[in-house]
Amino acid sequence: MYDLILFLVLLLLGYVFGQRAEKRHFKSIIEREQTLRDILVFSERRIPDEDQLEGILVSGNVVISVDFFKRFVAGLRNLVGGRVSSYESLLERARREAILRMKDAARRKGATAVWNLRLETASIYKGAQNAVGAVEVVAYGTAVRQRR
Amino acid sequence: MIVTNIETVPGKQIVKHLGLVSGNTVRSKHAGRDIMAGLKNIFGGELKGYTELLTESREEATERMIEQARAIGANAVVNVRFSTSSVAAGAAELFAYGTAVVVE
Fold it and tell me: Which superkingdom does the taxonomy of this entry point to (chain B) (predicted)?
């Protein structure tokens, strides 16, 4: 009985705090995307007119975990199959955040664009007992700035 | 040392290829971070301790790769790639590799 109550409390906590954290995170992502808009990102590897430029490797990463509620919902979804929307939003947040951090690193180095963007996703705690549903996303690319 | 993840170094000519260089590091979490991660497990959100840990490890792997490139006389590393794999529960390997070149 206590177990059931504990479970429901965790579910409720996860729902309330998880939703709030996610909403706040998306809001801050959208705001920062606006301010970093002038840094262009390309997945193209050939840089046109590169004679006057110099390149530096920049990267950004983030580890994000899902909340208890979403993990429970995803577990249920596993039974019937189909879209697991609770993990979709997790990965979207992680990816956008990683790109933002990379752009931020590029700006701090005085760069105006990032070329050959690569994204890599790794799941942390894979195969562990009581696995945390956490993912790491790393974004990296070659930032270019005018040669000094 | 110039590091890029494209095949060339912008604004410079590659005069010599010296072959593949790589660097790796295996890190694991410590208990304090694990407790925090357990809490985040309920509420969701960023695991800052892990983000830092992985950033540091990746820098370390890159540093080792650069060290190796320097040892064979390169002054740039091009086409750098990162890869992550979890070796055991709670430990991750960060690997960086690229081609060492001489540019002028």
Answer: Bacteria
Q: Do A57 and B43 touch (CB under 8 A)?
A: no
How far apart, in Å, do the first and last CA atoms of chain B sit?
12
Of the partner residues B9, B40, B81, the one whose CB lies closest to the CB of residue A65: B40
Q: Which CATH number fits domain B2-28+56-103: 3.30.110.70, 3.30.470.30, 3.40.50.40, 3.40.50.1980?
A: 3.30.110.70
What is the pLDDT averaged over residues A15-43?
92
pLDDT of residue B33: 66
ipTM of predicted complex: 0.86
State the smallest CA–CA distance between residue B44 and chain A in angstroms: 4
Contacts B51 to A, Cβ<8 Å? 61-63, 136
Look at residue B89 and tell me whether its pLDDT is greater than 70.
no
Burial (CB count <10 Å: 0-12, 13-18, 19+), residue A32:
middle
